[in-house]
Structures are given as C-alpha cells and as structure tokens.
Design a protein that fits this description.
It is built from 12 helices and 2 strands, in the order E-E-H-H-H-H-H-H-H-H-H-H-H-H. The chain is mainly alpha-helical. The chain has a two-stranded antiparallel sheet.
Amino acid sequence: MSGALTAPEAAMPSRPGEKPVLEVTGGPGRASWSALAELAAFRGVLWAFALRDVKVKYKQAAIGIGWAVLQPVLAALVFALFLGRYAGVASEGAPYALFALAGLVAWTYFSGASATAMESLVSDQALLRKIYFPREVVPLAAVVAGLVDLVPGVVVLLLAALAYGAPVGASWAALPLAFAPLVTFGAALGLGLSAVNVYYRDVRYALPFVLQLGLFASPVVYSLDAVPESWRTFYAIANPVAAAIDGTREIVLHGSWPRFALLGAALAWSLLLLVGGYTLFKRLERGFSDRV
C-alpha cells in the first residue's frame, strides 16, 4: 500500500529459519510530522535515488555532464546574437552573453528539475508496486540530482565573468542563497505535479509548453528592471525564478550583494508553495499503486 508508514512492526518468526515480516499500514493520507520523520529516516534512499538519476541521465553520453554546460552556453550565444545585437535588449550594462548566461544557468536547472520530477513517479511505477519507501523520495531525488548540473554551470558562469572582466568578490558566497528560492520552488512544483501526473497524464504534455512560456514570463533574457516598478516586487516574489535570477545577476554582473529582502520574501513564498505541494502529494498518495 502506498500510504505513509505509520506503525511498522516486524513480526517475530514463529519457526526457526523463518524470515520476519514487515507490516506496512496505510496512513491517513495527509501531511504530518510522522510523515516528515519517516522521510528523514529514509534520507539514505533519497540520496541513492538522486545518484541513480544522475547516472541514468548521462549513461552512454559521449560528453556526459558536459551537456549541463553546453545547453546554457549555446542558448546564451543564440540570445546574444538575436536579442543582444539585433534587437538591442538591455543587459544592465553588461555584455549580453554574460547577462543571458546568468539567467540561463538558473533557468536550465529549474526547468530540468521540474520536468524530471514531474515524470518521476510514472517512470518508477514498477518500484512503487514492489517496494515500500516514502513516495515523495522519488520527485525530491530528481530535484536534488539536478544540482549536479547546476554546479558546472556555476563554474562556467565564474569563468565567463572573469573572461568579460566582471567583478568577482566576496558577494559570490551568496550564490547559494540566490538559488535557494529556485530549488524550493522546483521541489514544490515537482511534488505537486508528479502526484497529479499519476492521475492525469495530460500534465506531461502541458508542462513543456508551460515551461516554454515561463522562459519568457521570467526575466531570463531580459532584466527584472523591464517590469514596471509598481509591479516589480510583487512579480519577483510571486515568481521565485525571477528573484533567483535577479539575485544571481546582482552577484555576477555587478559584484554586489543580492537584495536579501527580496530573496527572503521569495524564499518564504516558495516554502509556502512547498507545503502546499507536499500536502497535495500526501492527499493523492494513497491511490498511486492503483493508478500508475
């Protein structure tokens, strides 16, 4: 049964040589402290799933994790040519290629992690029927595995900043804080959408289209300053991707500290969405084994 493990009890063998039986009892179908405690107890399984996702993703790929670098770099060059040179899109006084790369490194992680997490339960349907573990481990592992792609992207971003003569200083230490709303928001979407995708497979067709729209609805190829000032703060909080990209650009392009108040508000909103996504996941969890 795919409910939460509320009272695991290993029955003592009645005969010598008999294996103990682990009884799994279905939970109440809602988020609870006991469910969170169980998730913490299975953290080793989460890391194992994340490692497996990384290995499977780059299995038999000639350049392996290099694709995590090539995708944002090539996209940044294309946008630099068409939007930076021909369309003259403002880039906050920085070279447009570096400006676009700062946005694309963050966006590539978010879109990839969200899409993989959404599909994760259906992809692992055989495991859901055979083995018990907290089901939220699967989409969360996809979000964690995406961080492996984010690290080389940040390294390339640092090298590009040095090549363009952008200031590199102590403010770079704040990059993890700039990415925090991004990771939290990705986990919130991954949990919620993966659960809904088990019941309605339309999600797998709708999400790629929504992510394409999100590329332009978020300040990936344009500055947050392009948003009217009266709406800018609300927009950056409601769309945590915008706050994360803006914080990244403050650090990478200008060598300054990000706007901590804006990042904090976006992170708080992302955490609220994460609670909502987790609650939805636990509500739908009981029917996973029958639906996948």
